[in-house]
């Protein structure tokens, strides 16, 4: 098990997923266990977690979960594969207004920190056609502009259309992160050309040698880490696994025990492994320094008030803030 010498923020956890309720493929295998999952995360140095919303219903549930712990926050938005829900509602504008009302409620509670997960996914057009995805991706910039929040973004095999829509709407939002990045070096460079954009990586971003080469070209000052749990774990067959140092005991779901991870189900504590792969892949020996940079990146986008407070404290003490 890893030491908690580093401070980490997992920017993407799908706590609304059935696996955290103990349900796998429609079958109840064990009791809901978010408290046990969180205990492992906090003991590993995870300082905060952002719970992902991917639909209006899911965003409501994400906010409810975020309200259970001071270290949990969430997003409000509609995933590209679910954008059909705007039209299926029978009242797309009413659906948008419900998202806006939920975002405002969550902001008042100090819990909603981004609009999303939204974007384009051309790998899964069977869930939602490209024209519908594009229409409601663009619509959600209106949401970000209305509530003055950054965007939590999803881009899969859609770099050209995604960046074209982004470039038209840059003035409407204060910044964003394209999470779970698995695309090409060319797409990476397109994203990095937007000054206020970060890139988020997880186990799915670290599968192949090509993935690792793409990662090497992302400056650490533009990077964030995540698990996207319960998915996107780092497996022994992945190219990135050679750099993993931290391991946790796990048991099959049929033999569930609260003190062990469920085999094959990713968890926020494993964001430590993502940090280790980033460090190893980039040849960075100072893992604590790397974690500090990534932490500050994440605060800069989602928790800017913390950076302001840190700067004020250092000014009062006569020191200056060093940018990594």
TrEMBL record:
Classification via InterPro entries: DNase_TatD-rel_CS (IPR018228), Metal_Hydrolase (IPR032466), TatD-like (IPR001130), TatD-type_Hydrolase (IPR050891)
GO molecular function terms attached to this record: 3'-5'-DNA exonuclease activity; metal ion binding
Pfam families with a match to the protein in the record: TatD_DNase
Keywords from the UniProt entry: Hydrolase, Metal-binding, Nuclease
Residues at which a divalent metal cation 1 binds: 117, 228
Binding, a divalent metal cation 2: 154, 179
SUPFAM superfamilies attached to this UniProt entry: Metallo-dependent hydrolases
Family: Belongs to the metallo-dependent hydrolases superfamily. TatD-type hydrolase family.
Name under which the protein is recorded: TatD related DNase
């Amino acid at each position: 098990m890893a030491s908690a010498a580093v401070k980490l923020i997992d920017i993407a956890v799908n706590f609304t997923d059935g696996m955290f309720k103990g349900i796998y493929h429609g079958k109840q295998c064990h009791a809901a266990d978010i408290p046990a999952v969180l205990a492992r995360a906090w003991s590993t140095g995870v300082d905060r977690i952002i719970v992902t919303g991917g639909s209006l219903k899911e965003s409501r549930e994400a906010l409810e979960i975020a309200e259970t712990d001071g270290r949990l926050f969430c997003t409000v938005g509609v995933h590209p594969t679910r954008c059909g829900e705007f039209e299926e509602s029978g009242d797309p504008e009413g659906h948008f207004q419900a998202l806006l009302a939920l975002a405002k409620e969550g902001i008042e509670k100090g819990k909603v920190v981004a609009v999303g997960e939204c974007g384009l996914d051309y790998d899964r057009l069977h869930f939602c056609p490209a024209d519908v995805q594009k229409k409601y991706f663009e619509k959600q910039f209106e949401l970000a502009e209305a509530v003055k929040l950054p965007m939590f973004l999803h881009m899969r095999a859609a770099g050209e259309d995604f960046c074209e829509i982004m470039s038209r709407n840059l003035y409407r939002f204060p910044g964003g992160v394209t999470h779970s990045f698995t695309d090409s070096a060319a797409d990476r460079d397109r994203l990095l050309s937007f000054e206020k954009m970060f890139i988020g990586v997880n186990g799915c971003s670290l599968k192949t040698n090509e993935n690792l080469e793409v990662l090497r070209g992302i400056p650490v000052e533009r990077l964030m880490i995540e698990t996207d749990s319960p998915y996107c774990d780092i497996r022994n067959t992945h190219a990135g696994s050679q750099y993993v140092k931290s391991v946790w005991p796990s048991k099959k779901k049929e033999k569930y025990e609260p003190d062990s991870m469920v085999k094959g189900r990713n968890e926020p504590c494993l964001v430590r492994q993502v940090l280790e792969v980033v460090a190893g892949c980039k040849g960075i020996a100072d893992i604590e320094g790397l974690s500090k940079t990534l932490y500050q990146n994440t605060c800069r986008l989602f928790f800017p008030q913390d950076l302001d407070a840190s700067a004020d404290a250092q000014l009062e003490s006569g020191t200056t803030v060093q940018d990594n």
